[in-house]
Amino acid sequence: MVSQICFDADTIECWLVRTRDRGVALPVYIGLPGVIERHKLLGIALRIGLGDSTRVLSKNTGFWRHLALEAQPGPKIMEIIWDAALPIETSCGGCCACATCHCYIDDAWMTCLEPADADEVDMLDMAFDVGENHSRLTCQIAFSEPLDGLRVTLAPA
Protein backbone atom coordinates (compact mmCIF):
# COMPACT_ATOMS: atom_id res chain seq x y z
CA MET A 1 0.00 0.00 0.00
CA VAL A 2 1.19 3.50 -0.74
CA SER A 3 0.06 6.70 0.96
CA GLN A 4 0.96 10.10 -0.41
CA ILE A 5 -2.29 11.87 0.36
CA CYS A 6 -2.00 12.96 3.97
CA PHE A 7 0.77 14.95 5.64
CA ASP A 8 -0.46 14.60 9.21
CA ALA A 9 1.25 11.80 11.17
CA ASP A 10 -1.70 11.33 13.57
CA THR A 11 -4.14 10.93 10.68
CA ILE A 12 -1.87 8.42 8.95
CA GLU A 13 -1.50 6.46 12.18
CA CYS A 14 -5.29 6.40 12.69
CA TRP A 15 -5.81 5.22 9.11
CA LEU A 16 -3.15 2.54 9.50
CA VAL A 17 -4.68 1.26 12.76
CA ARG A 18 -8.15 1.05 11.12
CA THR A 19 -6.65 -0.71 8.11
CA ARG A 20 -4.76 -3.20 10.28
CA ASP A 21 -7.93 -3.80 12.37
CA ARG A 22 -9.65 -4.91 9.16
CA GLY A 23 -6.96 -7.55 8.70
CA VAL A 24 -4.89 -5.84 6.02
CA ALA A 25 -1.23 -6.66 6.68
CA LEU A 26 0.42 -5.32 3.51
CA PRO A 27 3.51 -3.15 3.94
CA VAL A 28 2.86 0.60 3.92
CA TYR A 29 5.14 3.07 2.14
CA ILE A 30 4.57 6.70 2.95
CA GLY A 31 5.91 9.45 0.73
CA LEU A 32 5.34 13.09 -0.10
CA PRO A 33 4.10 14.20 -3.52
CA GLY A 34 5.42 17.29 -5.22
CA VAL A 35 3.53 20.57 -5.14
CA ILE A 36 0.10 20.09 -6.71
CA GLU A 37 -3.32 21.72 -6.47
CA ARG A 38 -5.61 20.04 -3.93
CA HIS A 39 -8.32 19.05 -6.44
CA LYS A 40 -5.72 17.48 -8.77
CA LEU A 41 -4.23 15.54 -5.88
CA LEU A 42 -7.67 14.22 -4.94
CA GLY A 43 -8.32 13.22 -8.56
CA ILE A 44 -5.06 11.27 -8.65
CA ALA A 45 -5.90 9.61 -5.35
CA LEU A 46 -9.23 8.40 -6.72
CA ARG A 47 -7.67 7.07 -9.92
CA ILE A 48 -5.06 5.01 -8.05
CA GLY A 49 -7.56 3.61 -5.58
CA LEU A 50 -6.89 5.57 -2.40
CA GLY A 51 -10.59 6.17 -1.78
CA ASP A 52 -10.34 5.03 1.84
CA SER A 53 -7.71 7.67 2.53
CA THR A 54 -9.72 10.43 0.91
CA ARG A 55 -13.08 9.22 2.23
CA VAL A 56 -14.65 9.73 -1.18
CA LEU A 57 -17.15 7.07 -2.15
CA SER A 58 -18.27 8.04 -5.62
CA LYS A 59 -17.76 10.61 -8.33
CA ASN A 60 -19.58 12.03 -11.30
CA THR A 61 -18.74 11.61 -14.96
CA GLY A 62 -18.11 15.35 -15.25
CA PHE A 63 -16.53 16.55 -12.03
CA TRP A 64 -17.92 15.68 -8.58
CA ARG A 65 -21.49 14.49 -8.29
CA HIS A 66 -21.97 12.54 -5.07
CA LEU A 67 -19.45 12.50 -2.29
CA ALA A 68 -19.72 10.90 1.11
CA LEU A 69 -17.44 12.52 3.65
CA GLU A 70 -16.80 11.40 7.20
CA ALA A 71 -16.79 14.05 9.91
CA GLN A 72 -17.08 14.43 13.65
CA PRO A 73 -19.67 16.86 15.04
CA GLY A 74 -18.47 20.43 15.45
CA PRO A 75 -16.79 21.78 12.32
CA LYS A 76 -18.60 23.84 9.73
CA ILE A 77 -19.61 22.12 6.49
CA MET A 78 -17.12 24.40 4.69
CA GLU A 79 -14.27 23.03 6.84
CA ILE A 80 -15.30 19.43 6.17
CA ILE A 81 -15.30 20.06 2.42
CA TRP A 82 -11.96 21.92 2.61
CA ASP A 83 -10.35 19.20 4.77
CA ALA A 84 -11.36 16.62 2.15
CA ALA A 85 -9.30 18.63 -0.38
CA LEU A 86 -12.35 19.36 -2.50
CA PRO A 87 -12.51 22.50 -4.61
CA ILE A 88 -14.46 25.07 -2.58
CA GLU A 89 -13.96 28.81 -2.53
CA THR A 90 -13.42 30.21 0.94
CA SER A 91 -12.44 33.79 0.27
CA CYS A 92 -13.27 35.07 3.76
CA GLY A 93 -12.06 31.94 5.55
CA GLY A 94 -15.49 31.20 7.00
CA CYS A 95 -16.27 34.60 8.54
CA CYS A 96 -19.55 35.11 6.64
CA ALA A 97 -18.03 38.07 4.83
CA CYS A 98 -18.53 36.74 1.28
CA ALA A 99 -20.70 34.18 -0.47
CA THR A 100 -18.05 32.04 -2.17
CA CYS A 101 -19.01 28.93 -0.15
CA HIS A 102 -22.63 29.15 -1.31
CA CYS A 103 -24.37 25.78 -1.53
CA TYR A 104 -27.77 24.23 -2.03
CA ILE A 105 -29.28 22.02 0.66
CA ASP A 106 -31.66 19.24 -0.36
CA ASP A 107 -35.21 20.28 0.55
CA ALA A 108 -35.67 17.34 2.93
CA TRP A 109 -32.83 18.66 5.11
CA MET A 110 -33.81 22.33 5.32
CA THR A 111 -35.99 21.82 8.40
CA CYS A 112 -33.07 20.17 10.22
CA LEU A 113 -30.91 23.29 9.97
CA GLU A 114 -30.94 26.35 12.15
CA PRO A 115 -32.39 29.24 10.15
CA ALA A 116 -29.93 31.55 8.41
CA ASP A 117 -29.14 34.62 10.50
CA ALA A 118 -29.29 38.19 9.12
CA ASP A 119 -25.59 38.24 8.17
CA GLU A 120 -25.91 35.07 6.14
CA VAL A 121 -29.07 36.32 4.43
CA ASP A 122 -27.23 39.55 3.53
CA MET A 123 -24.32 37.58 2.04
CA LEU A 124 -26.67 35.33 0.08
CA ASP A 125 -28.16 38.47 -1.46
CA MET A 126 -24.77 38.92 -3.18
CA ALA A 127 -24.47 35.29 -4.35
CA PHE A 128 -25.17 34.07 -7.86
CA ASP A 129 -27.82 31.45 -8.61
CA VAL A 130 -29.47 31.65 -5.19
CA GLY A 131 -32.02 28.87 -4.79
CA GLU A 132 -35.55 29.83 -3.83
CA ASN A 133 -35.57 28.32 -0.34
CA HIS A 134 -32.51 26.10 -0.11
CA SER A 135 -29.42 28.27 -0.54
CA ARG A 136 -27.02 28.47 2.42
CA LEU A 137 -23.40 29.29 3.13
CA THR A 138 -21.37 26.24 4.13
CA CYS A 139 -19.37 28.36 6.58
CA GLN A 140 -22.53 28.94 8.63
CA ILE A 141 -23.68 25.35 9.05
CA ALA A 142 -22.09 23.45 11.92
CA PHE A 143 -22.09 19.70 11.43
CA SER A 144 -23.88 17.74 14.15
CA GLU A 145 -25.13 14.16 14.60
CA PRO A 146 -28.67 15.03 13.39
CA LEU A 147 -27.11 16.18 10.10
CA ASP A 148 -25.53 12.78 9.38
CA GLY A 149 -26.41 12.13 5.74
CA LEU A 150 -26.91 15.82 4.87
CA ARG A 151 -26.93 16.39 1.12
CA VAL A 152 -25.13 19.52 -0.04
CA THR A 153 -24.51 20.73 -3.60
CA LEU A 154 -21.91 23.44 -4.11
CA ALA A 155 -23.23 26.35 -6.15
CA PRO A 156 -21.41 27.25 -9.37
CA ALA A 157 -18.38 29.43 -8.71
From TrEMBL:
The keyword Cytoplasm does not apply. Gene3D superfamilies: 3.10.20.30, 3.20.20.220. Keywords: 2Fe-2S, Iron, Iron-sulfur, Metal-binding, Oxidoreductase. Residues 52-157 form the 2Fe-2S ferredoxin-type domain. Its EC number is 1.5.1.20. Belongs to the adrenodoxin/putidaredoxin family. This is Ferrodoxin protein. The gene is fdx.
